[in-house]
Structures are given as structure tokens and as C-alpha cells.
Fold this protein.
Amino acid sequence: MIRVEGVTHAYADRTVLRDLTVDLAERRIGVVGANGSGKSTFARLLNGLVVPDTGTVSVDGLDTRRDGAAVRRRVGFVFADPDAQVVMPTVAEDVAFSLRRQQLPRADVSQRVSAVLQRFGLADHADHPSHLLSGGQKQLLALASVLVTEPQVLVCDEPTTLLDLRNARGVGALVDELPQQVVLVTHHLDLLDRWDRVLVMDDGRVVHDGTPADAVAAYRALMGGVG
Amino acid sequence: MTGLFRPGTSALHRCGAGTKLLLLAALTTAVVALRTPVAVGAGALLVAGAYALARYGLRTAAAQVWPLRWVVVALVPFQWWTAGWQAAVVVVGTLVVTVAAAGLVTLTTRVSEMLDVLELALSPMRRIGVSTERVALVLALAIRAVPVLATTYGQARDARRARGLERSPRALLVPLVIRTVRHADRLGEALVARGVDD
């Protein structure tokens, strides 16, 4: 379980999270909010990319401030822009890069890379240059590169923002089927239809916390009835 | 290196990256040291044979040296005029043969295999505190940065054109630098998220 307790965080003199306390135990948790509402910083708290100025964040009892490396092994993170996340020149090499620190035998690495590429429909692109993939394929590669390490939790920060509707739904469906606990920050509200819980953020606070239908209605009301 | 590798099953593809790099170093050293048209010709035959062994045709070989065309066009008459036809053959031939050979190594070797060799070659430096893994990572990031920067440059150039500022270097360089720094920032964050610094 992820526990966020009394977290306040600021970038220089701009406070982005204000005394936030929330427990995340459900398998599927969505986070919505306007640009600048603090949801990306909130997501970054969950695997220790951002350490809060005050308060604590823990994952299964591991404090992100004290046990950052252990937390990151448990919590995978997918960013909005896969170009900034893909490190190696070819698809298979990028997935294998995630396993580099585990120092597995070469055959094991190869087997795990093949399996995850197969699962994400990228097996035919294993030796392709990663920069020549389509936007949707790049995001699938980013997901595959994170999931090959088998994290217990996946945090996705707007993974569909740069994708068209078809690719966004494809990525959303894949995320939906994962066995891991998933925290999804998104502007694509339809991806959250069947999720367990949705948080609505505004000005660094959680202003609504409930079922997808209620939360999306609250978010729309907050946005002045847009959409 | 930015994606020139082509998977295959030839003997050259199966050959280790270290062996290929050693052979490339030996060929380059021999051709440069001997400095004769015969040596260049022998080198060219060897490289042509290696392309055939890897099952690549003339078109693929030509594509590796095509970026040299303007250098060749400039060097041949200059060398011929200043030092004779033999010097022209040796200088230009050495350049073409070694670039073609390096291109073949790239075509048949994954970047990750090259990085493994680099890490191995640098391993004695671990004794003086050099992180060979980090050096290899930096090289990988540099290779990966080439297409990213090319895309960023293209976007900044198009944006400049769309604003009717084709002649303004500032309209190109400022967004290019800002986007590049932002990309580096995001990449750093992604590397931390992937546990590189742990």
C-alpha cells in the first residue's frame, strides 16, 4: 500500500502540493486535474522521484526519502514523453537496459525481453531503431521497458497525452489488463470508466475522491462544465 | 550507430563485437601504415569480401561511404595535383576503405554489444575509480541523442519558417537550446526512475 501523509512540496516559491494525506490501496487509481494542479508532482512522489519538503510517502512501509532505491524497484514509472524515456538505440536493447543492473545471465535477459516485446506487440520491431517507431509504439516500448523489471506498482504520468485516440485507447487497454496496482494520471477521462477510484486534484489538494463517475462529474464541475 | 544495425545470421553477425573491432583496428592500421596503392587495393578487396560474407550488396556498401562524396570530390584533384595520382589513390582509398569497414562493423553489431566491449576495455580504469558502466551509458545516450536532436532541430526550423523568420538565427537557436536542455532534464529524471542512479 502507498501512504502519503501530510505532504507539502514547493518548487522555489510556488507551492504545488499542500498538506496532502491519502492512502492508495486499490488496484486501479486514476488522478485527474487541470494543468498545474499538482498531479504530476503527486505521481513523482510515489516512486521517490520527488521527495516532499514536509511529510512522508511510503510504499509497503518503505520511506521514499530513506529507501528511494528500494521504492523505485517496486514502483515503475512511465512518463508522458516516451522519447525522453527511451535510452537505447534499438527496441530490444532499451528493454534489456532495464535489466542491466540485475546482472542476469544473457539467456535470461533475452528470454524476458522477447516475452515482454511479444506481450506488447513489438516482437517484430525488436531490432528496429527506437526513434523510428510511431508515437504509440514508443509509448508501448516505454511501458515494456518498465514492466520487464516486474514492479509491483506502476505509476503513469499522462502516458496517452501525446497519442491519438486509437493509440491512447490501446495503451489504456493494456494498462487496464496489468496485474500490478496502477496509478494513472490522465486527461483522457474515458480511460478511467471502470477504475476503482479517481482523485481530482486542484491547487495542490485532493478536492474529490470517489468513484469514476462521481469524480469525473466533480472534475467537470470544477472546470466550469467543460467537456 | 543511431540505428544502422541490421539483424542477420551471417558469420559476421555471429562474430563477437570485440573480434570485429580488433579486425577493424588491424585493417585500418595496416592500410594507414603501408600507404601504397597495393595495400589500399588489398584492403578494398578484403572489405568487399566481408560485405559479401555478411550478405550485403553493393548498394548497402555504397550507402556507408556516400556521406564522403564531397570529401572525395575535393580530395582527389587536390592530392593528384599536389602529390600525384598514387597519393590521391592512397589518401582517398584509405578513407573510403576504412569508413566502409567501420560501417560494416556497425551494420552487423548491436550497440549494446559495442558498449559491453567498451566496458571490458575500460575495466582496468575501475581501479582508479572510473565507473565503466557510466562511461558506456554516456556513450549510449550520446548515440541516442543524435536522432532526438535532429528531430528537435527540424521542429525549431519549421517553427521559425512558420513565423516568417527564416533568416533569424535566434529564432532557431533559442528554442533548440531550450528544448534540448528540457529533453536532457526529462531524460535524467527517466534514468533515475529506471534505477540508473541507485
